[in-house]
Amino acid sequence: MALRVAVLASGNGSNLQSILDKAAAGVLDADVRLVLCNRPDAYALQRAAQAGVPHLCLPHGDFADRESFDAAMVAAIREAGADAVVLAGYMRLLTPLFLNAFAGRVVNIHPAVLPAFPGVRGAADAHAYGVKITGCTVHFVEEKMDHGPVIIQAAVPLNPEEDVEALKGRIHAMEHRIYPQALQWLAQGRLVLDGRTVRLAPPASGEAPARAADRGDWLVWPPLEAGF
Ligand code: GRF
Known about the structure:
Blueprint: E1 3-9, H1 14-24, E2 30-37, H2 43-50, E3 55-57, H3 66-80, E4 84-87, H4 96-101, E5 106-110, H5 122-129, E6 133-140, E7 150-157, H6 164-187, E8 191-194, E9 197-200, E10 219-221
Parallel strand pairs: 1-2, 1-4, 2-3, 4-5
Antiparallel strand pairs: 5-6, 6-7, 7-10, 8-9
Helix pairs in contact: 1-6, 5-6
The protein binds 5-O-phosphono-beta-D-ribofuranosylamine (GRF).
The site of 5-O-phosphono-beta-D-ribofuranosylamine (GRF) has 14 residues, from helix 1, strand 5 and helix 6.
């Protein structure tokens, strides 16, 4: 059965777009039941509209506190029939009330190789630090920001002369590959949590999955499978 997801976004929504595109192409077995934004100007809302996906804006400023806001989101997500939550540039922390409602079913993408450079400026901080390799991470979400068990990471080398915007663009390109891949593994029930370690089970067929034709910009682990 398709993974029934709600995507939470606060801005552009290019990761949302990659998920919608992979689902439409039949590569990702996911049904995006709802796109939920906390900002009315989030372009993600327009992307949802263009794709014919139900979408809703709940401005967080309309709520008395974080719990009542998160409770409204939980209600909307349940109403939409989603049982997994995908954070795609969603710029607010989630309360235990929300995380407990979808325990083990909330994932996030971060533009750095965690645990390096957590926080809202992951790519810019890595660039400013002068690292030689950075990248992106998909992980399960815990209450502590950018801290949950890691599902997949991509390494992206820095070109010595590139500015931070160019770097962000190359990280984004890898995000658009590893996020749909991680969701496909979740859809297939292949992500097994063992303490902080996420193990990738083989496909139900028992056959080794075909690998993606290239390994991305540099290295992705676990390896991308065909189609991603
Ligand atoms: C991405 O860089 C993601 O890693 C971070 O927020 C950004 C969202 O970009 N969490 P977009 O809105 O999906 O284009």
